[in-house]
Amino acid sequence: MGIYLGLVACNQNTNHDSKAGVDSIKMESKSLLDTSEDCAKPTKYPNQDKPMALMMRQMADDAQKMKDKVEAGEQIDANEFPLIRFHLVEPTDPDVLQPQFYENARLFQQAHKAMMSVPANKQKEMYTAYINQCINCHQTYCSGPLKRIRKLVLN
Ligand code: HEC
């Protein structure tokens, strides 16, 4: 599974100019969604999971590893934990692809960059800001995993 996820992420990186990022994403105008819990339900047919859901799982696994390292005072870097461009791939529910979603993804991307560009003694603070961006987006678009994400907050 881990290897498969890696491939998904790599393919995305090669298919898109790495500088393109969130800024160039075309905005779509759709009305705001009700908060959806569906996205967190374990699925019966894992092979039908959409790429965005798979990337999110990878991000949650990565964040757990980052948390352990940050708490141990070890440096984390973008080679080990690259930015995952989930906003470029298909979600389970296409209605999430709204301007606010892309704005949240942009803020998330900034927080990732900031976290990776500071020395180990500043990374606790930056990691907290990073996880807050997960929470920020999930409060609007996918509240189910919030319980899991809150466990990624530093002790
Ligand atoms: C810009 C919005 C946004 C940000 C930022 C974001 N998420 Fe998500 N997340 C979503 C959406 C939308 C889904 C539903 C994806 C789908 O089902 O295709 C999701 C799904 C998930 C899931 C459930 C995946 C599954 O098994 O189906 C987890 C866990 C998750 N996110 C964790 C995280 C973590 C951890 C972070 C931060 C490191 C994060 N998310 C950042 C929007 C976001």
What this model shows, in words?
The protein has 155 residues and is mostly helical. It has one domain. The chain is 50% helix and 0% strand. The protein has 5 helices and no strands. Helix 1 crosses helix 2 and helix 3 runs antiparallel to helix 4. The two termini are 29 Å apart. The chain binds heme C. Heme C (HEC) binds next to helix 2, helix 3, helix 4 and helix 5.
Descriptors:
about 160 residues; mainly alpha; 5 helices; disordered N terminus; binds heme C
Write the layout of secondary structure elements.
Elements: H1 2-15, H2 51-71, H3 99-116, H4 123-141, H5 146-150
Helix pairs in contact: 1-2, 2-4, 3-4
Bound molecules: heme C (HEC).
Residues 39-40, 50, 52-53, 56-57, 59-60, 63, 91-92, 96, 101, 104-105, 108, 133-134, 137-138, 141-142, 145, 148-149, 152 line the site of heme C.
Summary of the model, kept short:
21% of the residues are buried.
Portion of residues within helices: 40-55%
Shape by Cα distribution: globular
Radius of gyration: 15 Å
Order of helices and strands: HHHHH
Number of DSSP helical runs: 5
Unreliable stretches covering 5 or more consecutive residues: 1-36
| Biggest pleated sheet | none
Provide the β-strand percentage band. under 5%
Total beta-strand segments: 0
Write down the overall mean pLDDT. 81
What small molecules accompany the polymer chains?
A: heme C
N-end to C-end Cα span:
29 Å
